[in-house]
Amino acid sequence: xxxxDAVVIGAGHNGLVTxxxxxxxxxxVLVLEGNHDVGGATRSGEVTEPGLVHDLYATNLNxxxxxxxxxxxxxxxxxxxxxxxxxxxxxxxxxxGGSLRVYQDAERTERELGEHSAADLAGWRRLREMQxxxxxxxxxxxxxxxxxxxxxxxxxxxxxxxxxxxxxxxxQLLARSTRELGETWFETPETRALIAAWGMHLDYGPDVSFxxxxxxxxxxxxxxxGIAIARGGVSSLPEALAALVREAGGEVRTGxxxxxVTVDGGRATGVVANGEPIAARRAVVAGTSPRRLFxxxxxxxxxxxxxxxxxxxRFRYGPGTMMVHLALDxxxxxxxxxxxxxxxxxxxxxxxxxxxxxYTQSLAGLIxxxxxxxxxxxxxxDPTRSPDGRxxxxxxxxxxxxxxxxxxxxxxxxxxxxxxxxxVADRVLAKxxxxxxxxxxxxxxxxxxxxxxLERSNPNLVGGDSVAGSHHVAQNFLFRPWLGASxxxxxxxxxxxxxxxTWPGAGTxxxxxxxxxxxxxxxxxxxxxxxxxxxxxxAAALARGADAVAGRFTGR
Length: 556
Ligand SMILES: Cc1cc2nc3c(=O)[nH]c(=O)nc-3n(C[C@H](O)[C@H](O)[C@H](O)COP(=O)(O)OP(=O)(O)OC[C@H]3O[C@@H](n4cnc5c(N)ncnc54)[C@H](O)[C@@H]3O)c2cc1C
Description:
By secondary structure, this protein is α/β, with parallel strands linked by helices. It contains 19 helices and 20 strands.
């Protein structure tokens, strides 16, 4: 039987990061990926027309660029093929008769916002100042294991630096919903909607408490950093990571779906993949969704506590996402402003009430009558994606029911995603047409990925939930994936859980993969000097990463 030190289930970017650090510390590592290519939700391909490269799922790599992994491996990744391209026109929102545009040039953004509303500009400036303080004091917690001594140290430092009163002010601000955040700081419905749209990227409809967290960080973070995507397609990131794993002596095997985690004497001892048993001496690291891990891969395994299975069964998923990939003859002809065609993201909501209606409809099982569109103008940011002037456009549709019970507009009769998806895509294009007249005539080809297609392509995206499990506060921080499991070690010795369903959650942040490697490489008898130096390098990179996160977003 093949025996290795660690088996990593899934070649998402997190799994590859864990594998890489373990392999560099001298572990014999095998990554098993069920798909025929690596990357999970970070994959690209020519899905509309030959020569046009689309990011199939994730595209915005800001979180990765702010991660300790990038701080540590930047040159290695460049050598193996990953290079970011940054747009200095990160995001905008369109409204009937106008738009709000956020440029990396903060002065320009503020000047234009001031022309829209002096009161909103004042709120923007004050909120931005607070965001800078927040990033410098509390953001390092995002790159820290929870719970851990390091997290406590960060908190103590934050108390010393900002004082308890300021931290409580932050807590109150973050506890707000996105609607409350907007109404507290801005007067116009446009600016309120500009920030509320960010909440919908996770599963925060405008009226969910703590929805303010992500928009508070993203609104100013993306302005200052710009939005980064991968030159030539996002697959270059996992492919570069996989190349580094192999270079360090690890193996990355694709087309290898893990069917079972084996447990012997109460300890995880290996896996069965495509019928082949593989033993793991030190660890099985599962980058899989908790429900599948405990409900399928550990089904019938002895010694798995009933309460762990219960936690996994109760793990909640958010609403679904659909992707509409477009090949266009020319850039999107937005009517509100000529610059809009070159922005990385344009949100088409338009208003907070529209987002609230969409969110509620999707939770009720209804296809929303007017879903939120996140229009990613990929080839405008990275022209290498379409060398001959055709345009690559990525439209993320938020949010949709995982299972269709009806249509809020009463028009679509299909109740299975395979039959409904093209009609929903027609609705998406009709909505786009309202803000970009003539766009429909520019469409050369389109490929639609329904929530069901997302799950088929990656079993972690249960019900097409792009964030692999609700991020509401009851399932976040110490509660992700559930209380007692936030630190990656599961209740089964030798079995670890990483990925978007674990702290700190979804996004291309690489952090659960990184922090799990840190946990595994912690000083332990018999690991030897190489591993110990791996730990030291990891700790140093983490510290640098935390600084990079703070620095990147505060402009230091
Ligand atoms: C449509 C969409 C758009 C997104 N947009 C963005 C964005 O712009 N920016 C951003 O930061 N984030 C975005 N995200 C979120 C982000 O892509 C994910 O949170 C992140 O990629 C998760 O990475 P991961 O390493 O945890 O796992 P995943 O990328 O989910 O990979 C998990 C891998 O494990 C494999 N696997 C699972 N079970 C098994 C098994 N039993 N055996 C073998 N292999 C298995 C899967 O096939 C998959 O390849 C988006 C997600 C989606 C779906």
